[in-house]
Amino acid sequence: MGKTIAQKIFDAHSVDQPFGDVHVIRLDGVFCHEITTPTAICDLMEKNKDRVFDPSKIKAVIDHVTPAKDSKTAAQGKILRQWARRHGIDGFFDIGRNGVCHALFPEQGFVRPGHTIIMGDSHTCTYGAFGAFAAGVGTTDLEVGILKGVCALNYPATIKVVLNGRLAPGVYAKDVILAVIAELGVNGATNRVIEFTGPCVDAMSMEARMTLCNMAIEAGGTCGICYPDKATVAYLWEFIKNEYASRQAALKEFKKLVSDPDADYDRVMEMDVSNLSPRVTYGYKPDCVKPVAEMEGTPIDQVYIGSCTNGRLEDLRVAAKVLKGKKVHPSVRGIVSPATPTVFQAALEEGLIATFMAAGFCVTNPTCGACLGMSNGVLAPGEVCLSTTNRNFNGRMGKGGMVHLASPATAAAGAIAGCITNSKLYKKRAE
Amino acid sequence: MESFDGKILFLDRSDINTDEIIPAKYLTEISKQALGPHLLEDLALEGFDPARDVKGKGVILTRANFGCGSSREHAAWALEVNNIDVVIAQSFSRIFRQNMYNCGMLAAELPAKTIDELFKTFAGRDVQVETDLERSVFVFTAKDIRKEVPFSLGGFDRALIEAGGWLNYADERY
């Protein structure tokens, strides 16, 4: 029997199999942010175990609330900052260099095909876009990762999602993943890896693949994963050029990870994306998904463009193209958070920031804040946000608020129209 | 080891996410105790009032996919500081389930049919659960009913409970 990509990575990292299907695997990366790590740091200090297994494999960022909004968030940042300094963690990103973790760490070249990575954040599954096995974990798993460089996980079972066809103009990876989650359900992939393959994935940029893998957790998935290919090598080349003789050599090495043709899957789901229309969520679960056209006219108070799902350069380009020469509807607050300083800088140079500002958007620094209702765009009770983020849970962006998840194109179109709208129509809501 | 006995808090809904168990605005707390008063504060469940219903409970009985969403271990901690060390559900999200065992707590899965029967028999009543870990049996007791329900506990899960969590377990071995 052949193996899936996740199983190959797992086998190459397994150091112990204490019980049945449970493997203890060696970690190539332990990533940290200021919300879930400080408790681990404090606990290690209390237990006289304030050590790190390998400072070069630990990366850390202050991203959820930055700049600090109050004394408590300032203290969380301080604990992480001092810890990173104390242990010589060079891959630490503080204000001015910080960005949304799952956009920042790949951009820095920290995520490679075949890697095993954990982070105290559920959207760690994003890194599977690079052919890595990456799982979100809680603080105790993170703590053990920091101290020992290992994590216990079940041997990966996989759901294969084959995406056939070509996306129509105006339809994006976000629409695809919303459609996939609608099909799988919010726990349809629990304890499973979701492997994304097919011509649609092959044609996707690394950024789009990150959007796809980012939301694997919304179907309960341990990790989303794509096969490494030419696009992966091209994205990573500046970071790996000293490790491989040529791009072809790197590609050849990475291709060894691709799932075997006779690999065993729990489920294979085929989807033809050619006729897929833009999607948006309703209700309080990410599997409550409808065509945008069916939600046409739903009034909105805020549009948020950003996050680890859709705050990358490609996303800002898409939104800016829709917004170019238009104005945000008077009853809508538009907020855009470029996900990293590099994204921000490029958006400035390309004139995207000018487009957002001319349209009436507020441009914030890179941060996760609004997505989970912590800062920079919290909703009031009864308010509605059309958002490019990943969770529409009750109260997610602020108690009593409603979140509709959509692509950057749909979000931008909604900002102009003042309501959810199919991006072709731009029907304005009455002022 | 944690105590796995106590009164039941019935949460008759599936897909209760960790934002509902402990909202993100409290993730700025570093002390686990500070989470205590905010447990299930944002839970959307008809008739549920956290201020009234959480106190004095030691066990949660709920439906499918409990603890989905964010990886925040604060969800398990918020239960722990309220002395709720057992959640019995049809199923859990992977991360929440692991967080429970990593803290030496118990997240037990029972078949949908059994969960359904338990809700039908006991919901709305004053019910005590005793957990016999050795035999892997829950004993539900209300005024005039006593019901034994077996559960299965994996070897790794049991080892984590006995070790008092994953840090203790891993520190001894790796």
| Strand order in space, largest sheet of chain A | 5-4-3-6-7
Task: Report the order of strands and helices of chain B.
Answer: EHHEHEHEHEEEHH
Helix content of chain A: 25-40%
Q: Strand share of the residues of chain A?
A: 15-25%
Structural class of chain A: alpha/beta
Compute the number of strand runs of chain B.
7
Mean pLDDT of chain A: 96
Find the CATH superfamily of chain B.
Aconitase, domain 4
Distance between the termini of chain B: 22 Å
CATH superfamily of the largest domain in chain A: Aconitase, domain 3
Structural descriptors:
A: alpha/beta, five-stranded parallel beta sheet, B: 174 residues, alpha/beta, Aconitase, domain 4
Characterization of the model:
The complex is a heterodimer of chains A (431) and B (174). By secondary structure, chain A is α/β, with parallel strands linked by helices. Chain A is 32% helix and 19% strand. Chain A has 15 helices and 19 strands. In chain A, helix 2 crosses helix 5. Chain A is globular and about 60 Å long. Chain B has 174 residues and is α/β, with parallel strands linked by helices. Chain B has a single domain, classed as Aconitase, domain 4 (Alpha-Beta Barrel). Helix content of chain B is 30%, strand content 20%. Chain B is built from 7 helices and 7 strands. Chain B has helices at 18-21, 50-53, 74-80, 94-102, 112-122, 155-163, 166-173; strands at residues 6-11, 57-62, 86-89, 106-109, 128-132, 137-141, 146-150. Chain B is globular and about 45 Å long. The chains are: A alpha/beta (431), B alpha/beta (174). Chains A and B meet through strand 1, helix 2, helix 3 and helix 5 of A and helix 4, helix 6 and helix 7 of B.
